[in-house]
Amino acid sequence: MNVSYYPGCSLEGTAIDYAASIGGIGSLLDLTLTELEDWNCCGATAAHSINHHLSLALPARNLALAAAAGRDVVVPCALCFNRLKVAEKALQGPEGANLGIPYPGGIKIWDLLDYLTQDAYLKDLGPKVVRPLTGLKAVGYYGCMVARPPAVTDKKEAENPQNLERLLKVLGAEPLDWSFKTDCCGAGLAVARPDIIDTLVQRLYERALRAGADCFVVSCQMCQANLDMPQKRIGKQFSKDYYLPVFYFTELMGLALGHPDTKKWLAGHLVDPLPLLEKIGFGF
Amino acid sequence: MPTILTEPLEPSFSLAQRLAGLTSVSACYQCKKCSAGCPLTFAMDFYPDQVIRLALLGQEAQVLGCRTIWVCSSCETCTTRCPNNIDIAGVMDWLKEAAISSGQALPQPDVTRFHQTFLDTVLMAGGRLSEPLLLGLYQWRCGSTLGKLKSGALVADLKMAWELARRRRLMPRLPHRLKGVEEIKAMFKKSHLSDTREKP
Q: Which of the four CATH numbers 3.40.50.720, 3.30.565.10, 1.20.1050.140, 3.40.630.10 does domain A2-113 have?
C-alpha cells in the first residue's frame, strides 16, 4: 500500500525515535509512507487556543496538499490528526469559503494506530511475529486526541477503544484492562505548568500499577513524552521509585517482528526499557 | 478551589449571543457531566459547568479573567460527553482568544506566553515548529532567570535538554523553510495574531 504521510513537527525533533520506528515497521509491512511534500505545522494547541483562523488555515493547507497528492493521509501524531480532522469538517462547512483554501476532499485522514490495526493488517501481522512478546504486561494508553470528540474524529469507540489491545494480543503481549486509557496526560501544559502534568501523570502511574502493568504502550508522542520524561521527577516528588517504560506501539511491532533497529529506537527513551525486556527474557 | 460568588448577578445575554455562532450554551441544563469528567478541576477556579453558566448569564469579566480557561488541557472529554452537544472545550478556546483581545490582565501568563511563542516560532522558522527555538525563546520571554536558578528549575531544565540532546531528540539546526512560506505568512497576516497579543 502507498499512502501519504504527515509526520508533524515533533517527529522531526523530540519524537525522532517514533519517526524512526514508523519508517522501520513500514518496510516490514509492505507499507510505503510517502511524506507529504512541503507540509506545514498544524498549529497545535497554541493555534486552537488563541487564534481560530490559524487553527483552521494551517491544517487546511496540509489537507489541500494531501488532496492534490490523491492518496489517503496517515498521521502518527494524535493532535495533528485531530487538527486535520477539524479542518476537514470546517472546509466542508460554512467557514470553508472564508479560509480561501480549495479542498476537493476525496481522501481519508487516518491516525496511524487505526490504519495499522485494520482487520487486514492484523490478519497479516500474526504470521510475521517472530518473537512474541510473551510476559509483557501492558496497559494501552490512547490519550485524548485520536478519539475525542467523535463528531470530529469520526471514531466509534471514543470512551473505550480496543484496537491497541487487539494489536498487543497479536504481538503476544498481555494487554490489561484499566479505566484510564483515554484520560488526559496534560499534553501541552508540560512546559508552562509542569506541576499539572505531575498530578495527572502520577495518577496514571498508580492506576497502571494497580492494573498490574509493567509498562505503557502509546501511539501519541506527547503522551510518550509526558509519561516518560518526568518519571524520575514525579517519583522523587511522591517518594516512590516508579519504573514504567513507555513504548510506542510501533516499537513493540519492531520487537515482535524482529526489526534489527529496535534497540536503537528504544535508546531514545529516558526510562530505559531494556531491564524490563530482559526480565521477561527478551534480551538483545 | 472553586470560587463562590457573593455578589448578586446582573445577567446580560450578549456573551451567549456572541458564542451562538460556535455552540449553544443556552442548551445547558446543568447536569455537570462536564465537570464530573474533567481531569483538570483540581487546578481550576471555576468548574467547567460554572464557566458555561457564567457565560450564559453574561458575566464577561468573570469568565474572561478566570484561570479555568487557561488550565483546560483541551482533552475534549466535556465536549464528548455533553448530552446537549455543547462544545464546551470550544467555548474555553473562544474565551481564551476573547480574553487576550480584551486587553485585561491574564491569570496564567506563562500558559498564554507559551501559546504565543509557539505560533511566533512557527512563523519565524518558515512554517514548521522548531522545538529548540520555541523552548529557548519561551524561557527568554519568561525572564526571571535568577529566580529559576535559585529554585533549581533552570538546572533541571538544562539537564533535561541535555538528556534529549544526547539522544538526538533536541538538535539545534537551521529551520526548514517551506516552499510555501509566503502562503504561511499570508495566513498569519490574515489571522491578526499580533492583535491577540498579551498587552505588556
A: 1.20.1050.140
